[in-house]
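Board notes, transcribed. Complex of a protein with iron/sulfur cluster.
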Amino acid sequence: MNYEDLKTVEDLDGLYPKHILDKFPSAGQNAFDDVSKDEWNSWNWQLQNRVVDLDALESIINCSADEKKSFIESTEKFNMGITPYYANLMDKLDVTCPIRMQAVPNLGELIILKTDLEDPLGEEKDMPVLGLTHRYPDRVLFYVSNNCPMLCRHCTRKRKVAAPSSAAQNKQIEDGLKYIKEHKEVRDVIVSGGDPLVLSNDKIDYILGELRKIPHVEIVRLGTRTPVTLPQRMLDDKLIEILKKHGPIHLNTHFNHPKEMTREALLACTRLALAGVALGNQSVLLKGLNDDAKIMTSVCHRLLLMRVRPYYIYQCDLAEGISHFRTKITKGIEIIEKMRGWTSGLAIPQFVVDAPGGGGKIPVNPEYIVSRVENKVTLRNYKQEQYEYFEPS
Ligand code: SF4
């Protein structure tokens, strides 16, 4: 089957067995039932009709007093923007709904701890040109847009995506391309933002085309949350054709909870996969939302069914105003401990702490080596049973 043959969620019926499809309920459009199917499936309509004010929000959910206060008081710092598709997934009554927690302002955002950082990953200090971070020897992070379909409340780059005036300019993109061309050590480029897929097809085609002309660039990655918050973007045949043309493209997305894994998201990922795009996922560990081994395992199992590799679980960064989302690092280790051995290694992402201040990603794992005496290493397995391994002396 080709991606062109998959236009609607109904077309998935011929591709997946029913028991798999049943794990991906359709999002529907309940709160927007007066909107035509064509409009609903248009990514431009979704962007133009984002939920950005309190009246629109209250027409979808029963806002709590705290949510209203948070909306009013956080707007200046980090405004609200939710695609109708994502807004429609919110529980009308439950303030702890995992979709609602990621989309609606929370009082916790008003608290700035002494240990919070405006630029938690030190991305600005490793910028040789505006809009490009060069930290690791052979790869760069290239910011081509400062807009996102949805403004995630836990975003680590709030300082960028919250400011409409900071939209990436053409000059910034040209300067980034020039830097990559001039630095032969750059083998791998992560095209990110904001979200690069809010750009026009022509712009995306141009950026990917220019990168592909550079002889030392081998890997091109895209960081985008559109499969989660705007899966309608993947219904655009022209976009998929562009990604196919400039392949191999590695696309990393950001599913955090099984409730985000809808039939529409399955359609979006399947279309990408059929066009040869390699898919990965980076979840963020968020308190009260997915800091639970059963929930994380369920996310990872569904990811595999969607042809997406579970790549990373990130410890929540020290960005300002997101301390209410943070867990202890031991929680992430505990989740991996409860996954390793109990489910396939394919389904287990790497848990990482992105070191504050710009130290890069540091993998954190449960300890499986019990002791090491001369050439004897004692290991333990997932059931806490111990085994001895003798290394060459
Ligand atoms: S999609 Fe990513 S960059 Fe954009 S608001 Fe969400 S977390 Fe931030």
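Residues 148, 151-152, 155, 157, 161, 194-195, 225 surround iron/sulfur cluster (CB under 6 Å). Residues 170-182 form the longest helix (13 residues).
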